[in-house]
Amino acid sequence: MAIEDKIKGIANEYQAKLDNSKSKYQKEIERFKAKYEKEQREITKWYGKQIVKASKSEVINDMENAPEKVAREKSQDDDSTRLSSRFFSHSPKRAGKNLVGKILRTEYYNYIREGVISEVAILSGDKEDNGLCYAPGRIHLYSHGNEKALVISTEKEGKASGIMITKIKDTSNCHEIITEDVCKSFRIDDVLEGKPINNLRVWIYGEKSKTKGKLDMETAKRIPKCTAYYKIK
Fold first, then answer.
1. CA 204 to CA 193: how far, in whole Å?
2. Helix intervals (H) in 48-158
3. Of 21, 61, 69, 188, which one's alpha carbon is 20 to 30 angstroms from that of 221?
4. What residues have CB less than 8 Å from 128, skipping those under 6 apart?
5. Which one is predicted more confidently, 173 or 116?
6. SS3 category, 200
7. Is the predicted pLDDT of residue 137 greater than 90, yes or no?
8. pLDDT at site 105
9. Is the entire prediction scored with pTM above 0.70?
10. Distance of CA 7 to the CA centre of its chain
């Protein structure tokens, strides 16, 4: 009987230790759970919609149907209205001339970068150039050598024209980013092909109070189907 009591006592002792361990770990779980829920609330507030557990593809696919007012939300570094598709519904020369001096910004998870568009190329093609025939303000990844260049469609759907962003001045270090490095530097990949330039991941904006530099047009054809260049002088 004494042995049974001793065994029972040892069992009770280990059970008490186990219960204490469970209680300790449960508190840790609750703490991490509260931290996770807080982060999810911040994400939900940031994007203006109830996206708590969204994969990369779900976020990208949702861009097409995002409410226009959400797409035009101002970020902490964006003091003015983002450019809408209407901005690009004019001729590529008119839209390109006005695009110089505006700011391209990307926010991809924890990666944030922006720069001033300092030079653009005006493109004119034919109906075989499907990417140039998108509706105004759509992203097209144009083959440029072994790399991809960022092109934004202009005018109207079905008419092959667009603006290629050929130079950007990084606002953080004044480094100049050239054509073949724009997509890589701003995390613009094939997933964004055909998507609006004004979306939840990348957009262009321009401060109304900012004075643009003088514009200069060049006709040197460094790029196929290019008719002119506009740049900050």
1. 16
2. 56-62, 68-71, 92-99
3. 188
4. 160
5. 116
6. coil
7. yes
8. 92
9. no
10. 65
